[in-house]
Write a structure and sequence with these properties.
heterodimer; A: mainly beta; seven-stranded mixed β-sheet; B: mainly beta; four-stranded antiparallel β-sheet; 11 strands; 0% helix; globular
């Protein structure tokens, strides 16, 4: 059974940093591109970032470019999102999502989400 | 960037009804479109991919159609568990979601 389990969310002050982790089980992330998608309270879904299978290709939404970075440790079957210079508008539930293929594909599995709250 | 416009934003219907949700892209995306269902407090769930392919385990009352810039999600014979929010997503290079359609019980 494919499972994705996010962790690392919490309350952080504006300008602060936080790292989210997504531990995968039931499949090897090394064969799939992986993304982060977020959802602000009461709002819709917003794609944040994607990383290719070997970590060589990484793309970001304009809203987080230069502040967030994505990485993966295929040996530990884990995806990461490093968030810095956090703003109130970054407050959201952050989901990790498995892509069906190795690049630019739909998301066939999602984690349960990790809430990040940016507030003083 | 490709923009996705989804409508209606809210849809009221009754159990047993047939409903349609439309998604329009700002430029042609071929058939690179997915539909997701999200219930409160839960992660999104994949329903349809490549515009019209039903994800394994999804009931056949869900169907998708369209190509290019115009896409439709159809749900026939609505069941109580279908009342949720639905999102379209394009994956023709980068990703964009529609704003969502909340399907409510009339």
């Amino acid at each position: 059974d494919v499972q994705l389990l996010e962790s690392g969310g919490g309350l952080v002050q504006p300008g602060g940093s936080l790292t989210l982790s997504c531990a995968a089980s039931g499949f090897s992330i090394s064969s799939y591109a992986m993304s982060w998608v977020r959802q602000a309270p009461g709002k819709g879904l917003e794609w944040v970032s994607v990383i290719g299978t070997d970590g060589g290709s990484r793309y970001f939404a304009d809203s987080v470019k230069g502040r967030f970075t994505i990485s993966r440790d295929n040996s530990k079957n884990t995806l990461f999102l490093l968030m810095s210079s956090l703003r109130a508008e970054d407050t959201a539930v952050y989901y990790c999502a498995k892509e069906h293929g190795s690049s630019w594909c739909y998301f066939d599995s999602w984690g349960q989400g990790s809430l990040v709250t940016v507030s003083s | 960037d490709i923009q996705m416009t989804q409508f209606p934003s809210t849809l009221s219907a009754s159990v047993g009804d047939r409903v349609t949700i439309t998604c329009r892209s700002s430029q042609s995306i071929g058939r690179w479109l997915a539909w997701y269902q999200q219930k409160p407090g839960e992660a999104p769930k994949l329903l349809i991919y490549d515009a019209s392919n039903l994800e394994s385990g999804v009931p056949s009352r869900f169907s998708g159609s369209g190509s290019g810039t115009d896409f439709i999600l159809t749900i026939t014979s609505l069941q109580p568990g279908d009342f949720a929010t639905y999102y379209c997503q394009q994956y023709n290079g980068q990703y964009t979601f529609g704003q969502g359609t909340k399907l409510e019980i009339k």
